[in-house]
Each structure stands twice: as structure tokens, then as C-alpha cells.
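Postdoc handover notes: sequence design on the structure in folder B. Input C-alpha cells:
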């Protein structure tokens, strides 16, 4: 499972349930030898920071896979979420279990969204 994480958006009406948006990390230059976003990927992440609130409302929760400091694994996950975190003012919840087992981490994200 490879994704940037999830964004929870609570609807205004009490009878509506929360929406869970799963986002895959943005573009990486295939020729690059690192985990960072390409310039195009960063531009897309910045665009998502305005599109998501405009279409779904302000997020109530944002979560990403953990950035592994030794290898930079999951850097794009974190980098994709940062513009939305900054634009919305909602803290990023970093799922540290993703370093060991991204599948279990994805299951955890789903479970958290159902609470």
C-alpha cells in the first residue's frame, strides 16, 4: 500500500458522516536517485492544498506515513501533505508504524477513520 495518507473532512450537517480522502503521494522524477517529489509533484501537492478544502471543506485530520530519516523513505508522502497542513492549519498525524509495515499502517488509517 503506497499512499500519502488520509484527510478527514467532517461535514457541517450532523446527519452526514465524515469523509475519508485517500491520497497517493505525488510525482517523483523517475531518473532521480532519491525519494523526493519532483517539481511537478510539488506543484500538484500545492494545488491539492486549495482544491481539497474548496471541494470538501477544511480537513479535521491529516495523517501521513512516517518519514524515515536514515533513508528518506516516505518523503513524498510527507511532502505531499505539507502544503495542505500549512494551508489548513491542521496538524499532521504521523503514522510511525508505517516504517515497519505499510499494509498494517494502512489498516490502522482505515480503522482511525471509522472512529
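Designed sequence:
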Amino acid at each position: 500500500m503506497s499512499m500519502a495518507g488520509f484527510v478527514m473532512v467532517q461535514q457541517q450537517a450532523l446527519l452526514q458522516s465524515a469523509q475519508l480522502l485517500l491520497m497517493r503521494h505525488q510525482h517523483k522524477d523517475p531518473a532521480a536517485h532519491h525519494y523526493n517529489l519532483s517539481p511537478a509533484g510539488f506543484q500538484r501537492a500545492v494545488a491539492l492544498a486549495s482544491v481539497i478544502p474548496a471541494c470538501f471543506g477544511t480537513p479535521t485530520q491529516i495523517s501521513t506515513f512516517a518519514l524515515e530519516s536514515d533513508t528518506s523513505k516516505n518523503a513524498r508522502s510527507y511532502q505531499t501533505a505539507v502544503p495542505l497542513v500549512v494551508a489548513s492549519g491542521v496538524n499532521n498525524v504521523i503514522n510511525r508504524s508505517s516504517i515497519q509495515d505499510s499494509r498494517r499502517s494502512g489498516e490502522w488509517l482505515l480503522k482511525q477513520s471509522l472512529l
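Context for whoever picks this up: The longest helix spans residues 39-56. Don't rerun without checking with the PI first.
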